[in-house]
What does this fold into?
Amino acid sequence: MTTGRFHCRPIIASGYYDKMKHWRIDDVAWGAFDPGSVDPALVKLVKAAAMVERNGRDYALYLGGVFRDDPDFRNAANHWAEEEVQHGDALAKWATLADPDWDYAAAFDRYRAGYTIKTDADASIRGSRTGELIARCMVETGTSSYYTALAEATSEPVLKQVCKLIAADEYRHFKLFYDHMRRYLSRENLGVMKRLRIALGRIGESEDDELAYAYYCGNDAASQPYRHNRCTAAYMAGAMALYRYRHIERGMGMVLKTVGLPPRGRISAGATKVAWHLLQWRQRRFVQQLAG
Ligand SMILES: [Fe+2]
Ligand SMILES: [Fe+2]
It folds into this structure.
């Protein structure tokens, strides 16, 4: 597929999954793009997100190994990965409109060369299939909240539309992994505390290399050395600033539901307050770190 300077490599066996997608890149009203309402800070975040999303197929390979004897889940994971790849391509297309000099293919090649996940696993790195699915639920909770916040933060109409479409997909992905998680939970019987530990562990990994390195490949020249702390701070200072209380409240409900606690009520209200203050504190720390 080629549109102007926007190039992407062909999608492997995409025809079957294409038919099942809820939307296609051509459905976006690209003609409504308004260069005057582009926020350059958001362009940097969108470029980073495009890298991570486009890497979805590697996760499907990994999940295919973990769930090797579960064809229903493997099929669902392959479909899921194609939707994630489309998220990357749609975000990259928008970033290329905002910055026509940006080379998506070259940036993604750099990302792939420097950031890899184990794709030939035969067991989950989370210790169980339930644990794996809890971790996937956390990722989808994060992306669902993030794209909702990004859609509300931008006044650029095309980015708003793209982020709303992606946020709806991410919520469906959450439900997909949640339903499979419930199925495995009935066999594997993980207690609430164990599920909570896995969930919190995966949330904490948002400051690992996946996003920071994507920010670097999407935004910095290859001649510039990669510095994890600086790239994490640059990404997080921008991304965390987009959230409003309501996004954290909704995300907390999804986290609590996943670990088997009531998604609404006193626990949820208290946890949301704590998470909101922690988020704001972390965001200020990242801003200070960048300035220092
Ligand atoms: Fe996505
Ligand atoms: Fe997703």
Q: What stands out?
A: Confidence is low (pLDDT under 50) at residues 1-13. Residues 157-188 form the longest helix (32 residues).
